Amino acid sequence: MTAPRGSVKGIKGPATLEDVAREAGVSRALASLVMRQKPQVSEERRARVLAAATKLGYRPNAIARSLASRRSSTVGVLLNDLHNPFFAEIYDGIEQVARRRGYRILLSTGGRSRAREEAALEAFLESRVDGLILVSTLLTEAKINQAASMAPVALVSRTSRSPVVDSVLTDDVLGAELAVAHLIELGHRRIVHIDGGRNPGSRPRRKGYERAMDAAGLKRLVISGDFSESGGAEAAGRLLALAETTTAVLTSNDMAAAGVMDRLAEAGYSIPGDISVVGYDNTSLAQMRQVNLTTINQPRGEMGRLAMQAVLERIEGGRTKAVSHVTTPTLVVRGSTGPAPGSS
Amino acid sequence: MTAPRGSVKGIKGPATLEDVAREAGVSRALASLVMRQKPQVSEERRARVLAAATKLGYRPNAIARSLASRRSSTVGVLLNDLHNPFFAEIYDGIEQVARRRGYRILLSTGGRSRAREEAALEAFLESRVDGLILVSTLLTEAKINQAASMAPVALVSRTSRSPVVDSVLTDDVLGAELAVAHLIELGHRRIVHIDGGRNPGSRPRRKGYERAMDAAGLKRLVISGDFSESGGAEAAGRLLALAETTTAVLTSNDMAAAGVMDRLAEAGYSIPGDISVVGYDNTSLAQMRQVNLTTINQPRGEMGRLAMQAVLERIEGGRTKAVSHVTTPTLVVRGSTGPAPGSS
DNA sequence: CCTCCTCCTGAGAGCGCTCTAATCTTGCTC
DNA sequence: GAGCAAGATTAGAGCGCTCTCAGGAGGAGG
């Protein structure tokens, strides 16, 4: 038994506003006003239209609505990696605001590939999203600016010199400094930084490390890595091969830190007995007791919320001046850091 | 300096197909044929249209296209929890097929709340998605069937008696049996199951546990839990309070297993020395050396791919008979399981 | 009882594109 | 060179909705 679709004659799709209006005995325009909850409709008519809509199982066609109103009420969100729990919480913040304000979210992932991010961006633009949130994107400035000429853009965890793009970031220089200060306080002197390669956010973290090390008069050593577990493990391998005596490692994200810890443990080092490890992001991963990682927290939910709000301010509020929200990172001490060996 | 949008007169938006056609000196219909890569167009005209499109920076309006063609080329994907890495990989599989076949994905998360899932479903339907993939959804059969009357639906990790809905699942009964068999082989006799509460997939896993225990003539003990770390920890707490002597715990997902391990370790038990723990899903979490969890693998990427293919078969192939793909789980032995204490 | 205002209501013109049906070209055949 | 099939191109009618605007219904004021 197939469910009867729509109403009266022949093969008709879902009920349209026209059908509802006819059923209620009013004009299509009036029915439209009711569906959009406009005030200038008499209670009696409103009730009649609503009843008709329910009777016919009417469901507004968002596509037609978008075409006619020239607004899609949709914001495109581009995450570069769904697997990183860091992004899930940013998404939560975005989603929360979107839901409250009646916006839909079109989500895409770049899969850590620039080409795929470009394709996703193009798809967003074709879908005529009203706004765009690019999280830790790999896109070039040029592409971002081009997109910004079509719809408001907010960047998360990525800076931009563009005057037409909003951004939400954490003071990563400070974050890294916090981490290094913590290690120094624990007596560490040989502190290595495994950086995040070309990922956005990687550079300021390295800079914070360098600045803090310089300020303390300590020798810097940076090993290149990336934002993944395997990248961290691989970098740790290279660190071990250097035969440098190191007592602490600052990584540039938690996943990389987990990889580093793996590799070090495998090589027989005890953490934090022999080597202390600090991550970055305070993802759910770091919070797990088995990982128990000292790390730098970024207020992710808040960041997502700020980004969505920034976009909405441009869409609905007409703001045109770029804003940049810089949130403050905090140090979260857990079990992966301890006194430097030999320092009483 | 604001970027000039579109072309000629006044405040015009982005270039339209009409503009392109005019620029190329052909009809709108012809330009449309070119944009849709239809073959019946002479090379000369095709090139002219393409050149005009490039010149004007034309970008097809997906909304207008959807309205006119009555297909959105979009599939809605509802994940119930973005934080569970299990879902990220299913999404990868879905996305991979979607990309290859030219479909967009509209993603929503239910946030583990049925009300929010219902709202998300409604939004999908209003957006006139061509198909729907519900992953481990909390939605009622009635809602699912109603949705299925509007667009093809595929369920992942959730069964349905409905004859109009496709489903992709893992043989969870077998999975749990595999886990129990493994534990028995290691000499365990007192094996407790911490189940997944009302989450889809939880029931067959419990059934597999019960069946395997019965078959071995062992006493069953099920403690209710859920699919989260905190739920696992909490259930482990209740297990400890029972003062039962237990040597092995089978949880119903990896996150819960991590919570269980936390709680047990905190209570002074060594894993797997005193108690063995088995998870379920083989998420990236289980693979981490720090967690190193013996677990049951589900072919997630494959499951996502199958779901997307099933939906496409209905959209494009016109299939109407329901299919149900059952994938085979496998046991992945890691460090969280070992011989039962006392069994040589 | 008529005018002016304030509210409502309904007609109609699109939004940018697809798609069917009709028209126009060509290239062949005989 | 007429006749015609096959291929290339175009006109035109929507898809379902929003939105502007003219016009109608009441009520207050004169």
Structure, explained:
The structure is a homodimer of 344-residue chains. With 344 residues, the first copy, chain A, is of the alpha/beta class. Chain A has three domains: 17-60, lambda repressor-like DNA-binding domains (434 Repressor (Amino-terminal Domain)), CATH 1.10.260; 72-170 and 300-328, Response regulator (Rossmann fold, 3-Layer(aba) Sandwich); 172-298, Rossmann fold. In chain A, 44% of the residues lie in helices and 15% in strands. Chain A contains 13 helices and twelve strands. In chain A, strands 2-1-3-4-5-11 form a six-stranded parallel sheet, sandwiched between helices. A four-stranded parallel sheet of chain A has the order 7-6-8-9, sandwiched between helices. Chain A has a two-stranded antiparallel ribbon with strand order 10-12. In chain A, helix 1 (17-24) crosses helix 2, helix 5 runs parallel beside helix 13 (300-315) and helix 8 (172-185) crosses helix 9 (202-215). The longest helix of chain A has 17 residues, at 85-101. Chain A is elongated and about 85 Å long. The termini of chain A are far apart. Mean pLDDT of chain A is 90; it is low at 1-10. The interface between A and B is large, with 52 and 51 residues. The structure holds a DNA duplex (30 and 30 nucleotides).
